[in-house]
Amino acid sequence: MPRVLNLGAVYDHRALQRARERAGITVAQLAARTGLSIETLDTYERGILTPTSLRLRQMAVGIGVSVDSLFDRRDPDDPVVRATRDMLTRQASWRAMTAEEKAMLADLIRPV
Asked: Structure pTM?
């Protein structure tokens, strides 16, 4: 089972909706592309729930954007951003990660 990371500190629910709308797809279309329910996507877009790292990647792929485009664009030296990236790095044991998880982590910690 892939490791699930908490992205609440940097996930920007408004960016998800903007990216989806810029791509010209509806919530229903994104649901079909990702296998997530319309209700779940709606709660992510409204900021009621924070998606897991795996869900965030599914949505980014479904929209056709990079995972980091769905993050808050604060200064990379912002303490919250730095702490979150540090936490993501610490939680990941590189040797134990699958190729998919390594790609996901690389997307998540790439400087903005």
From this structure: 0.61
